[in-house]
Design brief:
Blueprint lengths: L15 H11 L5 E5 L6 E7 L5 E9 L2 E3 L10 H10 L29 E3 L3 H9 L6 E6 L7 E6 L4 E9 L2 E4 L14 H8 L12 E2 L3
Length: 215
């Protein structure tokens, strides 16, 4: 059985050609990554390097229920859960000619920042454990979104709960997903710029960002 999967295999800004080049350069049979589909919104692509050096691309659908490969395949709550399942259950993922597609080594994406407030693709429950271990209101961290690959979430400890605020990055601009509110006006060149701005300004959760929870 394969070891526990390292998170971080989703590449937010990678094309199909770039994915193939990256996988070929690594030269590892079974190496893989996931990227957005360039032809269909709300879809993603699992790109895998085969033993013979060829690259296979498999479309992943995102529905209201989660992520699946279509054709009545099993649905998973998160992209991570899906990839982990097919890594651990060799033989369930196959080519059209019935050849087995094995997932071995994830090709990790570049992190959006090296600052310690960024905890990467930790789960919602892990986030709660980290922030609830301290009584300090305003303690925060940033993690990858579990439901929308390529998005991020600021998680802030408030008086009675943990607030989760989505961060998006489109066309090189970072902003809070305020669903039409003023937050979408404030756009930044990097995740660090966004965080530093909201360290000085109210983030509209009745609690100001105060101190980052370090990974």
């Amino acid at each position: 059985m394969a070891g526990r999967l390292t998170r971080g295999f989703f590449h937010r800004d990678l094309s199909g050609i770039e994915a193939e080049k990256l996988l070929q350069e690594k030269g590892i049979p079974g190496s893989f990554l996931v990227r957005p589909s360039t032809t269909k919104s709300d879809a993603y692509v699992l790109s895998v390097r085969r033993v013979n050096g060829e690259i296979t691309h498999i479309r992943i659908q995102r529905t209201n229920d989660g992520f699946d490969l279509g054709e009545r395949k099993e649905c998973f709550a998160t992209l991570y859960d899906m990839i982990e399942h097919y890594r651990q259950n060799v033989g369930e993922l196959r080519e059209k000619n019935n050849e087995i597609i094995e997932l071995t080594v994830p090709i990790l994406a570049q992190m959006p920042t090296l600052e310690k407030y960024y905890h990467g693709p930790i789960s919602h429950s892990q986030t709660e454990s980290i922030l609830n271990a301290c009584d300090q209101v305003g303690l925060f961290l940033v993690r990858d979104s579990e439901t929308i690959p390529g998005d991020y979430v600021i998680c802030v400890k408030t008086q009675n709960d943990i607030a989760n605020i989505k961060i998006k990055c489109l066309n090189g601009e970072w902003f809070l997903d305020g669903k039409g509110r003023r937050e979408q006006i404030d756009r930044f060149k990097s995740l660090d710029d966004l965080i530093h701005f909201y360290l000085k300004h109210n983030i509209l959760v009745a609690t100001n960002l105060d101190k980052c929870s370090q990974r």
